[in-house]
Predict the 3D structure of the following.
Amino acid sequence: MRLATAAAAAALVWRACAGVDALAQAHQPPKVEPDDYVWQHDTNPYSGDPDAIVQGRRLYRSTCYICHLGAGGRGPNLRKSSLRGKDFVRIVLNGKKGTQMPAWKGKMSEDETWKVLAFIEAPSDSQ
């Protein structure tokens, strides 16, 4: 009987300690993954470049259009998205967890991704 009581007490103490660890971990700031990608550009070098916009349009049509369509489909409307610059390129290259957005790294280069962004950001009359 004493052994059973001691075992039950030990189990309660273990559970309590495990709960404290879980609570302590719940109050930790989220881990931020380091961005170890070596960027070729800090800003879009193709912004406003007519030739790059044409190339970006072609790339968008062959890779992005199936999900994003012209104004959003299964994926969001990229023209209305607040996602710009490196944030846009990072998601295109690495994909986005918890969504259907695949990673295009190895299939599209950083330069090609910047050109897609140049197309998306271009006024519709320049396309």
